[in-house]
Known about the structure:
Elements lengths: L12 E3 L27 E4 L10 E5 L9 E5 L4 E5 L9 E8 L8
Amino acid sequence: MGGPFGSATDRGLVLRKGKAGTNGGVDLTSLESAAKSEGGADSTYATTGWSRAEVPMLLGSPDTNGDAIPDVWSVDTLGNQWLFWGAAATLGPAAGRDEDGWNTFLTIG
């Protein structure tokens, strides 16, 4: 099963690295499965606190802090929207929390 969370075992948040595309982007087919990705396997990106029960909504987003690495928006079980800055090998700590509940917006992030 695809997605950021493990299904049979809770692996937390995993990272799948795409291969370079021919026009400077990413080869989208390399994101299709772990075996087709850069390195041929997913890697653990964050563990504690990233189960489906703890983070029911998650959205990868373009870079928000100017370091050229995509970031992650999440919604916790209380409806708080959180921004986590991405890093090359692991997800950084929460960079901020939106004070309004996620359900007051059309999208998260």
